[in-house]
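pinned: reference chain
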Amino acid sequence: MEKIIKSPEDCNDAELQSFEKLVTEGGEVALAGLRERIQRAEKLVFINDGECVAVGAIKNPNSGYKARVFEKSGALDQARYEYELGWLYVSEAARGKGYGRALMESIIHSLSGRSCFATTREDNGSMHHLFNRFGFSKLGQPYESENGNYSLVLYAIP
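pinned: its structure tokens
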């Protein structure tokens, strides 16, 4: 298993395409402007095992988006959180093999103690487990997603 962490500007086009492909495969993001949002991220994380099997990012969320997430969840202190952890996805064929844990370890290491927030579906038990395992806490209340008929939960790590 190879863990690669780099800024988007240090990625070649094939790496960016691979990242975007897996994020799209996850099916939980707005596709319009996705490549541009990926290129604005702080860091991209790739887990390779012969091929790219998992991705994630430390994102630079815009202030309007961050304000909406915190307002909808009823959470306070949004200014404390500079980064957003996001686009976490392990390919279907690679699930259950520890890649999610490896992804989180890489991201936490890259954060170097800086605070961040993340959202996940209310019914995504695997992500809730990973967030709890890596020191994230739930903030506020679940709220309805803008991207589908499901609720999201806000997590943060101080």
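why pinned: The chain has a mean pLDDT of 92. The two ends are 29 Å apart (CA to CA).
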